[in-house]
């Protein structure tokens, strides 16, 4: 299982969470990574944790102000990027452009979407993975694998129908190891986490609990 | 073949073009329709021409100001709508929401996209048809069927791979009957037209030329 | 006082509300107008009610699909338009462009904004009026004149400091004649209304109650 | 004069340009600063150059993915930020929110705008400075101070009329020391530069030429 911890713009210490991610990644079979803000990428990558960007723009080198260039986040140490997170929804053409930009820079790509139909659409754009996150469950603490197990299975089916090479992750409300196991049982190859780890008093312990049943 | 004339915000007489659309539709085997601005829908529909909206928003009845509600354009006489035209690009989630809104209101749907990958994505959202329009060819007078025939064939293949029930149209630069025939030979079931008819001195003659070889 | 009834995309009969607006306008000293959806402009204007658009885009005649051209809403019978309503927020440059487009088409302009600072900014763009609507009060039934009287006075002051010729309206939660009077006492020259009239069983009675104390 | 070098997403070495900025700042009376991408802020700030962000989002700590938090860019070493650059145009309400976020984080603010009317609007939002950059001149090499001197003087007048404490910068096409002097003569207290320095073979020499006549 792939466990990606999205730090959003939480008031957490990105380096401390990254160190927890690095340590837990080394001590388990799960692959654990962390996605800090762009301004924190360098110091997070320096911890040795697998580092992801939260977003890249559908642009190339050139006259773009305030944008996130895929090459720059790669150079800062990111090896992958989220695209089209529900808090950063992009135009269809720009999801396509962002996937292309990320691949050009050698970044692994996870395109987020709200439901199985959009997951199929996202898979058609050729990312490495897609992630289904029902917006109404984000931040609720109710895991998608429990609140809406059909949506995960339907997302897996929708992605497979379009491109069998695209992995499916799921997110929203995942906070325990049982949630992660349940997500895997529904066909998900990974999970997106956020507050459960980023806001934990002890991120290492929180992550260890999450991966323990794997 | 389906021939949809997009009036954009051109300074044309929408009723005069609509009458030409109606007349040519009756005199040929092609299906010819017209897409005026929202504020012109009623008077255009009253001509008896098949009338389409240029856009609907991913909304339902409620607190939305300045939006285009699918039910309202249907009530004004539209029987279908373009979605995600390259001049009105939507977020992926909103293309999905607009298709859903249009279907709820009984509107036929054509989702536009720039390239075969996006056409596959659009097809995954379940519209009646998709339309490939390379942005760089729009308004050039160079027909996509001539400038980039592969893109039309690839779009047909991409849509078919995702959903065999989704028709494929093409647009950009179509201005002669030969262009329409060429589009059909590449697997397209229709074309999007704009300035070639909307700005013609004699829209009826322009349309007759377009459908003559069909 | 100017009373503008925004029909949003409510499931109301726009013609029935327009007739109420027309009748009450004729029977009182207040100026009462109605803002239907673009697709309803023509039939609403035909009632003889003063008709406004809910939005115009910062565009001119040309290649724009799914946009609202100021000239088209004017031609359909609108004499004014809202711009930058909190449900249709525009980029700063586009508020400027929309005011310019509306003026080019002879439309009266009301630019909406959330707070006094933004009201000052809106006034600097040269509209005929600005309207302050705290987003958190919209649709609450708690009138801005009661919940936050300072915001109305501060908005009047901010607008006056920038351009003394710009009128100030207010909105959000206005539903009784007392609310309208209170708005006027705070320096507002008009009010934006929505559900209180548009969703009333008897829009004429609702409007008569609103303007009775004036 | 304040000289701010915007590195955009140019393929330049941000550290090399930052060192040039630092050195020239120390050797002249002008105040010279550099605005790299968010992912480069830390390493640029470590050079000792005055470092600015290119953009901050109108957000606070919380659930925001892929956004630029003012506190994070400040913590990475930025002391100021551009807002609403013509390549990153924001909604009016979001320009207001971004100014507020930047001030909360202790960042100096420069709000960009296209013309004098928008400059007046930007000034009403209370930033430290505004910058007028006619979009049609950006990247042309024709300095705004020569192509359109009136726009600079009108911008100064528009800003002063709204808030006399707001400084006015100008940009677009500035590439020589004479351009900088001309901008100052028109009432501008600084200039925005980009490719002229960022793409120069010798950024130090380019900057020295620019500030030599001051």
Automatic annotation (TrEMBL), chains A, B, C, D:
Pfam families: TIM
EC numbers: 5.3.1.1
UniProt pathway annotation: Carbohydrate biosynthesis; gluconeogenesis; Carbohydrate degradation; glycolysis; D-glyceraldehyde 3-phosphate from glycerone phosphate: step 1/1
Matching InterPro entries: Aldolase_TIM (IPR013785), TIM_sf (IPR035990), Triosephosphate_isomerase (IPR000652), Triosephosphate_isomerase_arc (IPR022891), Triosephosphate_isomerase_AS (IPR020861)
UniProt enzyme class: isomerase
Localisation: Cytoplasm
Signal peptide annotation: none
Catalytic reactions on record: D-glyceraldehyde 3-phosphate = dihydroxyacetone phosphate
GO biological process, one term: gluconeogenesis
Binding-site list for substrate: 6-8, 138, 173, 194-195
Keywords: Cytoplasm, Gluconeogenesis, Glycolysis, Isomerase
Highest rank taxon of the organism: Archaea
CC per GO annotation: cytoplasm
GO MF assignments: triose-phosphate isomerase activity
Active-site residues, record numbering mapped to chain: 85, 133
Similarity comment text for this entry: Belongs to the triosephosphate isomerase family.
HAMAP family tied to this protein: TIM_A
Entry function: Involved in the gluconeogenesis. Catalyzes stereospecifically the conversion of dihydroxyacetone phosphate (DHAP) to D-glyceraldehyde-3-phosphate (G3P).
Subunit structure: Homotetramer; dimer of dimers.
Name assigned to this protein: Triosephosphate isomerase
């Amino acid at each position: 299982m792939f466990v990606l911890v999205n730090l959003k713009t939480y008031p957490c210490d990105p380096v401390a969470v990254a160190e927890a991610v690095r340590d837990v990644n080394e001590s388990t079979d799960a692959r654990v990574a962390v996605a800090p803000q762009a301004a924190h990428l360098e110091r997070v990558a320096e911890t040795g944790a697998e580092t992801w960007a939260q977003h890249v723009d559908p642009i190339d080198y050139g006259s773009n102000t305030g944008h996130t260039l895929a090459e720059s986040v790669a150079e800062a140490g990111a090896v992958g990027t989220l695209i089209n997170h529900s808090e950063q929804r992009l135009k269809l053409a720009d999801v396509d452009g962002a996937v292309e930009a990320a691949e050009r820079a050698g970044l692994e790509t996870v395109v987020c979407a709200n439901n199985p139909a959009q997951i199929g659409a996202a898979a058609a754009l050729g990312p490495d993975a897609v992630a289904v996150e029902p917006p109404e469950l984000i931040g609720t603490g109710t895991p998608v694998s429990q609140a809406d197990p059909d949506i995960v299975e339907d997302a897996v089916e929708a992605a497979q129908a379009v491109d069998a090479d695209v992995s499916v992750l799921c997110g929203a409300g995942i906070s325990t190891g049982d949630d992660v196991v349940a997500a895997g049982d529904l066909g998900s190859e990974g999970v997106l986490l956020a507050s459960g780890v980023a806001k934990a008093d002890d991120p290492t312990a929180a992550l260890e609990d999450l991966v323990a049943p794997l």
